[in-house]
Amino acid sequence: MSFYVVQFLSGLASAASLFLVASGLSIIFGVTRIVNFAHGAFYMVGAYLAYTLTEQLAGTFGFWAGIVLAALAVAAIGVVVEMVLLRRIYRSPELFQLLATFGLTLMVEDLVVLIWGPDDLLGRRAPGMRGAIDIFGQNLPTYDVFLIVLGPLVLGLLWLLFRRTRWGILVRAATQDRDTVAALGVNQKWLFTSVFALGVFLAALGGALQIPRDAVNHTMDLRIIVDVFVVVVIGGLGSITGAFVAAVLVSELNAFGILVFPKISIVLIFLVMAVVLVVRPWGLFGKPEAPARQMPGLTVRPWRPLSVNERLAFLVLLIAAAALPLFAGNYVLTIGAEIAIFAIFAASLHFMMAVGGLASFGHAAYFGLGSYGVAMLAKFAGLPMVACLLLGPLMGLIGAVVFGWFCVRLSGVYFAMLTLAFAQIVWSIAFQWVEVTGGDNGMLGIWPDAWVATPATFYWLSLTVAALAVGGLRWLTFSPFGYALRAMRDSPLRSESVGIDGKRVQWAAFVVAGTVAALAGAMFVYLKGSVFPDNAGIALSVDALVMVLLGGVETVSGALVGAIVYKALAIWLVSYTELSKLVLGAIIVVMVVAFPKGLVGMWEVLQARYWPGATASGKARRAEVAE
Amino acid sequence: MKLSVNALNSFYGPAHILFDVELDVAEGEVVALLGRNGAGKSTTFRSIVGLVAQRSGRIVFEGRDVTREPTHAIVRAGLGYVPEDRRIFTDLTVEENLEVGRQPPRAGAPQWTRDKLFTLFPNLGEMRSRLGGRMSGGEQQMLTIARTLMGNPSLVLLDEPSEGLSPKIVEQMAHAILTMKKEGVSILVSEQNLHFARLISDRVSIIERGRICYRGTMEELEARPDIRDAHLAV
Ligand SMILES: Nc1ncnc2c1ncn2[C@@H]1O[C@H](COP(=O)(O)OP(=O)(O)OP(=O)(O)O)[C@@H](O)[C@H]1O
Ligand SMILES: [Mg+2]
User: Fold this and answer.
1) Which of A105, B17, B41, B205 lies at a 20 to 30 A Cα distance from B234?
2) pLDDT category, A625, cuts 50, 70, 90?
3) What is the model's pLDDT at position A624?
4) Ligand 1 and B133: CB distance under 6 A
5) CB of B54 within 8 Å of any CB in chain A?
6) CA-CA distances (angstroms) from residue A353 to A301, A545, A553?
7) Cβ–Cβ contacts within 10 Å for residue A412, how many?
8) Nearest chain A residue (CA) to B96
9) What is the ipTM of this complex?
10) How many Cα atoms sit within 13 Å of A98 on the Cβ side?
11) Do residues A333 and A324 make contact, with C-beta atoms less than 8 angstroms apart?
């Protein structure tokens, strides 16, 4: 019995940091409408800085001063980030904001390794709190008692701040209607900056307070951000009380889940989240949102099937690509195959996002399912490659059928977060179910059949599959199904009223996109000869998003261009610099700020401006540009 | 002149909405901007306070050119704006709503305190801690005016204050506006309701399809039923 009490109390102690970080994210979202992916990075930097400061400053006072100073310093960094980066993208679509702050996270990950090194750092224990108290014969660290008290204390202070101060009232007003606040003479810029500073301060404080409990390392940002997303989604974005309740709920699920279902403790949390979202899509304490903003300029440029000349041009390009093995070496061919596979993956996400208006943040789930499907068929059933390639993606299809059913009930940020959560379920199953998946060690030794075993033949196979997949998706885009999907994207109400079953159409698109992604994952296994949980990881999901946005989400062929450019760049970066994340992150940030229309979009704009006669719809385009 | 608007042109995307609108309000005056549904009254007001991004022309408030200034700066200069759709903060109490509007006292403009506003709108005084979302339309309309007055403006733009209100509340509203005027607030008020405008205004401009098509005193308009019938729905 006493064991369970202590387990419960230690769950409460873990909830404190989680609550601090989640409330910060919620407060920022409430006012600025930005889901700050970099929140985990601020948490991590808070921990690192607190580590350094508490090493430098002596004594009890030094320790606590170090914690607070670290949080303040990170808040100051947050102010700079807000003023330099976020102010430029407040009016951008949500997805771009999520991506820009993700780019920031990538940069921070490399920077902390540069500054503090790659190893885990063990921080100082809190002075005067090194002992433990006795609860019915079980030990509970004194520091945990401190954290248990701190959580509700911070909740109370925040409550006072938002109820009893003018600043708090302004923030609450802005959370509801920021334009009216401006029309009453309040300078929003200042308000946004201060809100962001407070949110970041809370995140960094949460990180700093972790150092006596946990080692500091450079992966803690992603771990916490996923938990925090779950907390704010369960609690309701924008609600501080919700963040508190959900932080406790999640921490207790963690504490007890480990005991009851050691293998699927992570899954449990995501299941709870999925259930909450289906029952109350806006979270336990949240409020239903006004419909999300439209995806970037989707209605602007008229799409059309390729003209005969353009088809010929594509064919020529394809033939040129097929001729690559005639003059390129094995290394280049392997890269070529990888690019082709990622073109399939990007095209599948593009279909969902650009055609369907469904921006998924967890598309890697289906890539991963396809990969593991193939690996299991090959390993356990011993099927030949072609059978595996045909059957393996079915696992992605099944995943998409199940997850998609839940996801299409939501939209906007919540859709993005739920897709992310499902992807994390897949990832954690792959990671935790060691007997079947091999866990972190992956499944190795899955090689293609002899007829495609050379780099050249496998490259041709990849190219063929890519051409078929991309062509098929394009054909679907201009089929009646594609039109129904676009109608749903552009005006859900109107299309429902003309008899389109919107949810069903979106669900179908979700399944198509998931299956094609799974096909890419299946091919990827044979390229690498192995599968790892990262095949379903967040990083891969974001890669796909970046490829689509880099190419241009408003264009039909953007995904293709994006995949080629991004993948080539990423491979090149990894082989030429140690700081690939730093560079990649910077590229993402710059891209979002400077080229929100992507490469193909930019090309079209330039084309319309300088060679207005060059294409059939040149005139229409020029008219748009003139606006 | 308290406020003068010159050659104001406004656009929503490609749609040209206002054409060379000219308006002015003298110190202590109540001017009515009359016009039918969709004539461009709200667009005019939103353009004056900088809420319409695409606009050209010149807006001079108390001798200062505010055309290029951001909304919050214009409002802080003493130009209060009461939007047509009220925009009450439904999650905030009456007192908190007023707090959002509060600005420091301003030389040359009447000063308003919470208590003074509760005397002007007695209904509000009885529901100080009620949530904005739980008030009737008329109460919300009073709150939105009171909230703007908390900024101690020297001029207020009132967008259709009588819209959708019961006759009894309309009467209270007219009384409140006249009290504001007596205190020294200049007012530019938009209306479709000629009867209401008659109760409160000194001068009148009529707008139709984005163009000012008549200007005169209230008495002059009363003497021209033809104009009234041509440009206003009565
Ligand atoms: N956000 C907008 N985008 C495009 N057009 C708009 C927008 N708001 C208003 N309009 C158009 O601008 C014109 C003027 O509208 P406005 O709201 O200024 O009229 P109004 O005189 O205030 O009418 P009402 O009496 O109905 O309030 C109308 O034709 C309207 O359709
Ligand atoms: Mg109007």
Assistant:
1) B17
2) very low
3) 37
4) no
5) no
6) 16, 9, 8
7) 20
8) A169
9) 0.92
10) 23
11) yes
CA distance A561 to A600: 7
Q: Determine which helix (DSSP H) or strand (DSSP E) holds A116, and give its type and residue range.
A: helix A94-116
Indicate yes or no: pTM above 0.90. Answer: no
What single letter denotes the amino acid at residue A460? W
- Tens digit of pLDDT for each residue in A189-207? 999 999 999 999 999 999 9
Q: Find all residues with CB under 8 Å of A463, minimum gap 6, and list them.
A: A318, A321, A322, A336, A337, A340
Contact A176 B76 (CB under 8 A): no
Closest CA to A360 of A217, A149, A544: A544
Residue with the two structure tokens 């060379």 = B20
Residue closest via CA to ligand 1's atom 16 equals: B40
Partners of B61 on chain A (C-beta within 8 Å) are: none
Strand partners, B54: B11
B46 CA: nearest ligand 1 atom: 18
Cα of B84 from ligand 2 centre, angstroms: 6
- Mean pLDDT calculated for residue range A237-248: 92
To test the contact with chain B by mutation, choose from A164, A184, A294 the residue with the greatest count of B C-beta atoms within 10 A, namely A184
Confidence (pLDDT) at A289: 64
Distance CA A251, CA A235 (A): 13
Length of chain B equals: 234
Please tell me whether residue B7 adopts helix, strand or coil conformation: strand
Chain B residue nearest residue A185, CA to CA: B72
Distance of CA B39 to the CA centre of its chain: 16
Contact call for B89 and A180, based on CB within 8 A: yes
Name every chain A residue with its beta carbon within 8 A of the beta carbon of B75. Answer: 182-185
As a whole number of angstroms, the distance between CA A46 and CA A299 comes to 42
Total residues belonging to chain A = 627
Q: Which H, E and C letters describe A226-277, residue by residue?
A: HHHHHHHHHHCCCCHHHHHHHHHHHHHHHHHHHHHCHHHHHHHHHHHHHHHH
Neighbours of A311 (CB within 10 A): 11
| Environment class of A548 (CB within 10 Å of its CB; exposed 0-12, middle 13-18, buried 19+) | buried
User: Is A170–B147 a contact, with Cβ atoms under 8 angstroms apart?
Assistant: no
Q: Would you put residue B129 in left (φ > 0), alpha (ψ -120 to 50) or beta?
A: alpha
CA of A53 to nearest chain B CA: how many angstroms apart? 40
- Does A180 contact B151 at a Cβ distance shorter than 8 Å? no
If you measure CA to CA, which chain B residue comes closest to A626?
B14
> Which tokens in the block code for residue B82?
């009461």
The DSSP bridge pattern shows strands A132-135 and A138-141 to be antiparallel
Q: Angle at CA B152, nearest 5°, toward B147 and B158?
A: 55
User: Could you tell me the sign of the dihedral formed by the alpha carbons of A366, A371, A373, A376, in that order?
Assistant: negative
Residue bearing the bigger pLDDT, B145 or A329: B145
Q: What is the per-residue pLDDT for B230?
A: 80
- Measured in angstroms, the CA of B183 and the nearest CA of chain A are apart by 20
Q: From the CA of B44, how far away is ligand 1's center (Å)?
A: 10
Longest alpha-carbon distance in chain B: 49
* Lookup: tokens for A458: 């496998």
Does the Cβ of B15 fall within 6 Å of ligand 1? yes
State how far the alpha carbon of B171 is from the alpha carbons of A35, B29, B162, in Å.
47, 20, 9
Task: Report the alpha-carbon distance of residue A421 to residue A171 in Å, rounded.
Answer: 29
For β-strands A530-531 and A132-135, DSSP reports them as unpaired
- Is the pLDDT assigned to residue A619 strictly greater than 80? no
Per-residue pLDDT at A612: 58
Domains identified in chain A and CATH numbers: 2-219 (no CATH), 308-321+328-626 (1.10.3470)
